[in-house]
Design goal:
about 190 residues, alpha/beta, Rossmann fold, 6 helices, 4 strands, about 10% strand, protein phosphatase, hydrolase
């Protein structure tokens, strides 16, 4: 039987992850993220995955999209750029059948928005930053498309292996669902 601490680590990544999950979940109940929910996105030709460091979540989403034959790129809001994917991302992505060895992080300042882009966001805090940077761009919180329907997808960087894989599988499921549900498959 798992201890409470182990359960929290496995399901939410950390105590901080649990608190953010609950906090942002309550805000979602009150409609705070309706503008970034699964919707009618017309004329989307590219998915742009965005997270903090562009070494875990967003490059994995990009890899899933590319495997599904849909154009994608990824960026980090708080990275310096040109860093490889995190070694644990490389390991677990490989176990799931994805090769991220050629990935190099890109800072969001390198992004040139296109009208046909859909920004795929991991956390509500990222959504707020992107609203300020790109107010007219279409955005979706990827967690809302996952099996758990959460608005907050905790960064797996400092989490245990169980949560790390769970996070990547959530991104994989949600990315495939996004491409399928919105008729984006080419």
């Amino acid at each position: 039987m798992l201890s409470v601490t182990q359960y929290i680590a496995n399901e939410f990544g950390s105590k901080k992850g649990l608190l953010r999950y609950v906090f942002f979940g309550i805000k979602n109940i009150f409609g705070n993220y309706n503008n970034a929910a699964h919707g009618e996105f017309k004329d989307v030709e590219r998915l742009v995955f965005i997270c903090s460091g562009n070494i875990c979540r967003s490059p994995f989403g990009e890899a899933v999209s590319l495997r599904e034959k849909f154009p994608a790129v990824s960026y980090g809001l708080h990275c310096r750029g040109d860093d490889p994917a995190f070694e644990r991302t490389l390991k677990f992505a490989k176990e799931l059948g994805y090769d991220l060895t050629t990935h190099r992080s890109q800072h969001i300042s390198k992004y040139s928005p296109l009208d046909s882009d859909l920004l795929v966001v991991m956390e509500p805090a990222h959504l707020l930053e992107l609203e300020a940077l790109f107010p007219n761009s279409k955005k979706v919180l990827i967690g809302l498309l996952s099996q758990s329907k959460t608005v907050y997808l905790h960064d797996p960087y400092n989490t245990n292996d169980h949560f790390f894989v769970k996070c990547l599988k959530s991104i994989e499921f949600a990315t495939k669902k996004l491409i399928s549900d919105l008729g984006l498959k080419v």
